[in-house]
Structure formats: C-alpha cells, structure tokens
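Handout, tutorial session.
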Amino acid sequence: MATTLEVRFDSGDAWCSASLYRPDGSGPHPVIVMGHGLGGLRQMRLPAFAERFVDAGYACLVFDYRHFGSSGGEPRQLLDIKRQLQDWQSALRYVRGRAELNSAKIVLWGSSFGGGHVLVAAADDGKVAAVVSQCPFTDGLSSAMAANPISSAKVTALAALDKLGASFGRAPIMVALAGQPGAAALMTAPDCEPGYLRLVPPGLAFQNQVAARFGLDIVRYFPGRRTSDITCP
C-alpha cells in the first residue's frame, strides 16, 4: 500500500520540511523531487501531481523551501535565490541517502520559479536522470520588462528600503506575491491573484507576501541560460 511520510532534511543553517510519497513494494523506487514556484507551499496542489506519479510507480519528495511553511529559517518569508538552490541540492542529498529510493533514477520537477531552479540544479548536479520544468521562469530581465510598470516601481522602492533595513538588522518590509494590476506585488496579471490564491487549500496558514528585497534579485536571475549544461532529458 502506498504511504506518505512527513520528513525533514538539513539544509544550510536550518532544515526543509517535506512529504515523502512511496509506492507499493520495497523498492528501490525511482524518485521525483518536487518544489513549488514563487512563494508557494507544498500543500498548494503539489500532492495532486505526487499522487499520480506514485500511481505510476514513482516515489516523490515534495518539499518546502527554508523560510516558508513548516520549514526552518529566519526571517520568515525570505525568498533568497541562492538559499533555494541550496535547498534543491540538500533535497538531492537526502533522497540519495534513503535505501528505498533509487539514486540512479532521480527526476527533478519544478513549476514556475521552481521550474527555473530545476534547470540550475540539474546543470550543477550533473547526475539526475531527467528534469521536468513546468511553465518555467527563465529570464529575470525579460520578466521585469513584461511586468506592470507601476507595480515594478512600487516593488523596487520597497525592495531598496528593505535591503537597507536588512543591513541594520531590521525586520523585513513585505510585498505581496500576487496582487491586482498596479499593486505593489510580484505577480499582477489580471487573473493572477484569484488564480494563485485558489491553490491554497482550506485551513492552510499561507502568507501572500515575501520580503521585498527579493525584487532587486529576481531581475539578475537567468536560469534558462543553464539549459545547455544539462546532460539528461
């Protein structure tokens, strides 16, 4: 019978919480490591994918980045690209250390911002069997140029203030993840806010915000440039 375990693995200065879905049988099972997009938590519809993959015979490790959900890390709601990429490396190290998982058959699966992360993680690791990059974020500058200019100006101003405050040890200044067009939010397409929040299951403690300093980092992230370094399908 398929089982689900709530687990955690060390990553940098804290830990990541995760759900490990295991199919029937003793294994070793091929495994899919799954991470969400911009500010998302693993409970936000990723179990629907994992359950289908388990039915097909795969194990799945679905994790939350540090600073989000039930994972460790302070301050909360800090979206840091380098730290999230480190979390992917830590997740790979974790699944390779479990006897019931096949370390020669590891797939990385990421959606949106996580879809960009898996391109970098696969290129850096060089040993995964396959990558699934769903509607990936690939180019920070292109994304910034396509964004609502009023929203971009608001986010940039708050990001600069948050970055300055962080140098003095102050609590983060927040911006919304998803908001209405023109709002101080990272995603402001007309249908974005209701669509994004619809992923949140009832009762989940979810915060539609992140530390604003991320707005200065996203424009310098180009994970799509790493695709030529990926050697697997």
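The second record follows below. Compare its token runs with those of the first.
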Amino acid sequence: MFHHVKIRKIEIYHPQNTVDNAYYIEHFKKQGKDVEGFLNHMGKKKRHIIKDPEETGLTMAIKAVEKAFESSELTMKDIDMILFSTQAPEYSIPSNAMMIHEAFKGKSNTRVMDVNASCAGMTIAVEQVSMYMRANPQMKRALVIGSEQLSILSNPKEEISYATLADAACAVILEKTTENTGFIDAEYHTYSANTDKILYPIEGMSGVLSGRGEGKFLRFLPFDTSFGAPITDRMIEDLLSRNHLKIQDINAFCLSQFAYSDSTRLQERFQIDMNKILYVGDRYGYTGTSSPFIAFYEGVKSGKIQRGDLVLFWTVGAGHQFIAMLFRY
C-alpha cells in the first residue's frame, strides 16, 4: 500500500546567456537612477536571460523535462499526470502541459493541465499533486513543471522588474512510495488586498485584445510589504507545531529567491543556521514560480540536501498568496 509521495528526480534548464549587475547599473544611470543599493538589497549579481529568439518558456520546459527523464531512466509513458506552472504562458490554448504531453508522446489517460498561482504556483502544484496522488490509487507518478520567460515582461524603466526577473525552467518527478518520506504538510495564507499592485496585462486581456492597451510590460507598483512578515512567521510556527517539529529539526530552507532580505529576516527571526538557507538568487536572478525548487535543486546537487533531510519550502505569489510546505527528501 502506497502512503507517501516523494521527489524522485529534479532537473533544471536555463539560457546560457547571463547578464550581470554592471549592465543594469549603467542602464538605469542613463535614466538618472542609482540602483546599486537596490541590487545589494535584493541580492542579485547575475541572471540568465533568453537571448535566442527561438527560445521560450515552453522550449526551456521541454529541455528540463528531457533532462529529468534521462537522469531518472523514465519516459512520459511512466507519467500519470502533468502540471505546468507558469504565469507567463507561451500559449493559452491549448495548455502548455498539453504541449509537453505531445512533445514526449504521453499515454492517453494522463491528466494534463496548466496551473497559475503567480510565483507560488510550482510549490502549490507540488502540494496539490501530492495530496491527489495519496488519494487516488491509480496515480503512481506525476510531472510538475515550473517555467516562465519573465524577462520578456520586465519594464526597462522599473528596476524592481527589469533588474530582478530572469528565465528558467524546473521539472520535478513525484512518485508514490512505501518509504516514510516525501510530502508531509502545507500551510496557506491568502491576503488579496493587493491584487492591483502587481498586474499583467495592466489593461486586462480584454483590454489588450480590443486595442485599449499594449499589455507589454508587468506593472509593479510600490506598496507596504510589512503585512508579509507576521503572516509568514505564523505559518511556519503553525506548520512546525502541528507536525511536532522545531525549527532546529529542519535541515534545509528553500525559500522564495525574490529578495535576499527575505532569507536574512527569517534567519534572524528563527535563529536559523544560515548554512541551512539555500540562496541562489544571486546567480539565477528571480525565476518566479520555479525559484524555491531551483534552490532545492542546487542543494541536492551540492550535497547540502541529502535523502532523509527535512526541507521547508516557502514562497509567495502576487496578490498575495503565501505557502509553506514541509517535505522529507
């Protein structure tokens, strides 16, 4: 009898082209802005940015899935469900998950869908699929993909998007197991008062398609972010408490890679060993939905995360929706 859902394999793909801080410092200097302090606060040094016009969020996803199948010795015929998480889909019709199914010739009874929960999407997708797999005896393996070309949405006049957002894809294969491992629990909090602050397209899809606006760039308006800290702290405390764990029991923290200050604040608040917090946003930029899992990937690759380790994922999507998730790797 299968009771648990584990991560069998994780792989990533990113464009080879990298852009460092010098470019953005010079770019905004021409606009009369000094962004060096901002870049230090966000913890950004390099980002992978698509340069090849033939490369997209979908092609990146295909390459990440290809790597996951090669390293796990599985094929799409072994997959019972595909969830593609993105907030910048290459296609709306059909779903990007359908495109993945076709690219790898999946079987006819595969569940296939796209998921959009903004930047929280991939973490939510892993939680939702894990719960569904535990409830459905027919489900043995699922493929969760997080991929988006965020650089194409970034506004060259706004450092918060232009100097932060980057491009990458991540593919995770989830598998049922009798081992005492895998998904444990998750905690959510939805605070929807800021739905107008981070918006794309600004005019709505109806506005863009009827010619009332370009819909070209993401809008990221300034707003008071202080509401997030107490929400996050309470979520982590509740998640640990109901699973009879202490913060010291967690072996690795895979957090949103949006701002390095998020990591340092949590480190100070919970007195976490900084070596347990995996920050890769300085090398990857902010990749949106995939960012906590790219941190996880790097943790596994470097050996900082070993089989049996307890991992806490945390991230937040625009609007805002927070998720904290416990997983035993």
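Points raised in discussion: The first helix runs from residue 21 to 29.
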